[in-house]
Write a structure and sequence with these properties.
The chain is α+β, with helices and mostly antiparallel strands. The protein has a single domain, classed as Gcn5-related N-acetyltransferase (GNAT) (Aminopeptidase, 3-Layer(aba) Sandwich), CATH 3.40.630. About 30% of the residues lie in helices and about 30% in strands. It contains eight helices and eight strands. Helix 1 packs antiparallel against helix 5. The longest helix has 20 residues. The radius of gyration is 17 Å and the shape is globular. The model has no long low-confidence stretch (mean pLDDT about 95).
Length: about 230
């Protein structure tokens, strides 16, 4: 159970990033209705398609099992987006969840193409079980890039994830260039391994070779609640 002291620290932690966004001219909002989220992402012209694991037509997210963030500028135009969902892997692990395609489709037998496939060879993925928060669909409008937005969005994702679930792991899948350019470290992830998701989704026209990035639950807690508190 999260203590009152933890709640106070979580509140302060989240507020600090909300204030940092406001200083950059971005007003952040949280939501839990993923039908609404998809309507926002589809209306955002320069953002690529959202993967099926955040689309309710392919992978519904139950109440209390996910949230999303949108940031708008002074003209109320969308400037940043990201989403987080919880995977209950108490009887599985992340590698199995990805390779079965259940990470992307609630019912792979119904929605997956016969040639869809995912390989996860990152060693840590087989140890990721329990409550696993998956952080993805991040997008920053071009004119806000290079201004520290990843740190803000990562901080918000970590704070809200810890407040809602206190997960055993928080993770994401990213292209290698995001690691090379330091974007992943800006988000606040401490670890990465290659071959997190070698993915092909035919009907989605998705072909990826992504790295797995992650924090353990204890590392997440130490980010949000100062040690010794």
């Amino acid at each position: 159970m999260t203590s009152v002291v933890d709640l106070l620290h979580i509140s302060r932690f989240i507020h600090s990033y909300d204030a940092a966004a406001a200083q950059k001219g971005i007003k952040l909002s949280l939501g839990v209705d993923f039908h609404e989220y998809i309507s926002i992402t589809r209306a955002t012209a320069t953002k690529g398609p959202t993967y099926p694991n955040f689309r309710p037509d392919r992978s519904p997210i139950g109440s209390g099992e996910g949230f999303w963030m949108v940031g708008v500028d002074k003209n109320n135009d969308v400037a940043v987006l990201q989403a987080v969902r919880l995977y209950d892997l108490s009887r599985s692990n992340l590698a199995e969840h990805l390779q079965s395609l259940k990470a992307f489709y609630a019912d792979p037998a119904k929605h997956a193409h016969p040639e869809d496939e995912c390989t996860c060879a990152a060693p840590i993925a087989r140890k990721m079980s329990g409550k696993v928060a998956y952080h993805g669909d991040g997008w920053v409008r071009r004119d806000f890039r290079g201004s520290g937005i990843p740190e803000i969005m990562g901080g918000m994702a970590f704070g809200v994830s810890f407040a809602m679930w206190a997960p055993d792991f928080v993770c994401g899948l990213v292209a290698r260039w995001l690691i090379d350019k330091g974007v992943v470290s800006q988000y606040g992830y401490a670890h990465h391994e290659r071959a997190g998701s070698i993915l092909r989704l035919v009907e989605e026209e998705i072909v990826d070779d992504d790295w797995l990035i992650w924090l353990t639950g204890e590392e997440l807690r130490s980010r949000v609640v100062p040690p010794g508190e």
